[in-house]
Amino acid sequence: MSDFSIWGIGVAAGTAATIAAVVVFAWYSYLKSRLPLAVYYKDLESRVSDLKAKVADLVTEVERHRQEVGNLLQEKMTLEAEIGDARAWLDKNRVMLEQLPAKRAEIAETEEKLRRVRQEWLQAQAQRLDEEEKGATARREVERAQTEIAELKTYRDRLADRVAALQQQQRQLEVQVGKLELDTQKAADQLERLRAELAREEKRLASLEAEYKRTRAEQLERLQAELAREEKRLSAIQEESKRAKAEQREADLARAEASAKKDSLLREIALKERDLGRLQREHETLSKKVEHFEQMVRAPSMAERLEDFTKPAIAVRSNIQPLNATGDGGERVRLEECARYFERNKYKFHARTLSAFHTSLKTADISPLVVLAGISGTGKSQLPRLYAEALGIHFLNVAVQPRWDAPQDLFGFYNYMEHRYKATELARALRQMDVRRALDAGEDTRVRDGVLLVLLDEMNLARVEYYFSELLSKLEMRNVAGTGDGQGRHPSAIEIDVGSLGEDDQPERLFVGHNVLFAGTMNEDETTQALSDKVIDRSNVLRFGKPGHLQKDKPPMVPPPDYYLRHEDWESWLRPDLPAGEADEFGRICGSLNAMLARIHRPFGHRVHQAMYRYAANYPRWVDGCFRCAMADQLEQKIIPRLRGLSRDTDEKAEEVLDEIGGLINDLGDADLTNAFGAARERTVFQWAGVNRQEKQA
User: Fold this and answer.
1) pTM here?
2) Domain range for 690
3) Residue 127, SS3?
């Protein structure tokens, strides 16, 4: 309860007693004027005595109210003492409040460090955007770092808010103290005014008695006039009495509210003390987090960043030796041994399928990807594995995941939280196969002296263009850049994101040499993605149909041979040109084909022409009709897929072109291809499902 409320209660009580005495006296005066003089004088003495007794009671009541006012003033002094204690507490903790700017400075310094880290991250992000969104996974790590930074800022903001709340509480307490002092002064002034008014009323009462004694007639007239005024005044006094009672009730409520507020202030002070303790603990925790973050932000050395990248992914057995398989003779022996190795493992592939797969790998400089497509469970994944084992080629199976959407899924990413490059097995294997790289201590030279076949298993679970397009482009640039050292290889190299580079650091690049071959399998169903024209143009697509008969037993596991194929032997199998007569025939066939396709607005360019030429030149020469087989394969793999969706209803030249292509296929003498092409063109819209050569298995 404030001092003003206490003073108001006392003043209201005194005023009410005075007004009651005046009203009683006026009432008796009025009655006295109306009674006969004999009765009046007879009862005057007793009434005056009663009036004096009532006045004495009123004075006693006033004295009691004054005592209550004194008690309230005592409570005021108690509250002032409590306010003084609160000020002392504020003074005691002012040192802590004065330390807040220093803490804010520490937080500002931390923010500056975080800003520099964020600036570095933005630079890294810009670099990743320039490299076709290579850093998708790294951005997820950075987002987690930003989350921690936001949490640190939240802690800082909470600390600032609590300090501001304490300062606001201090200002409110000071304002309340000023109000209490002002209310006390106003109450004292009001008390003096009421005392003066009481003195004036007493003088007025004496004047009325004197006037009554001087003349009764004058007094009656005056009293009648006074009666009217007093009746009005009585009404006003009654209203004032009601207001006084209401004010007294409000004063009681204010007193209870002041008491509750006092208790609330005490509880709030206790809570603030606990909050200050918690703030100190949070500040210590924040400082530790900032220290930990500063340690994390410290850029490690390049060797530390690439520690995971330099781990070997390919290992060779200690007893294997290089295989002597140079030239056409060595190539024929190895393919014949490969067919026997398939039989020992109880796998049966058509001879044309093995020749097509082998020839497609030999054209990797132009068509760097061999795709094995078809229904699941037809041996698409086993063909590359068994082929690699039979020829002594290193083999790496990469299982494609549906979530892959960037090159980082193939090669790995830079973890900006740990400042480490998280490499995949493919990235580590490609590093091992780089013949221009300096050997690590204890590294086995037999790894990169050989050939590596990488299989992208179920490659169309994700969009191939998202994760493989950059690598396809780099593989095409190998012929332009060559395999020399220095800047010459950079156009065909894949730059590894290793964070911010120092002045002496060089970018880490990954070069895929000609000793690395790529194949991929794809299931064609509703859960997979179709290949785009860009990928098909740069690939040879081999299709697997349903098996001719189903096996009931699982094939056995035959130990792989104890030799490996050297890359120089593989290079000796490559032929750049066709014999003169076959080259002329190839030019005639390709010219006719491109003219046919141009009439239906589907011609091919230099890349497809060069890939078909290289395929025909590298087809096994010992196979009967090798040129016709090679051209039939290329029609199946590169030309006929271009006819997908061709409608005889909407394209008037479709029937004519299909007849001409069918005639060319008949000239090549491939009955299986002829039948498959005839089945595809029977529909109104051309649908190509490939050639199923499984039925001619031995």
Assistant:
1) 0.58
2) 575-698
3) helix
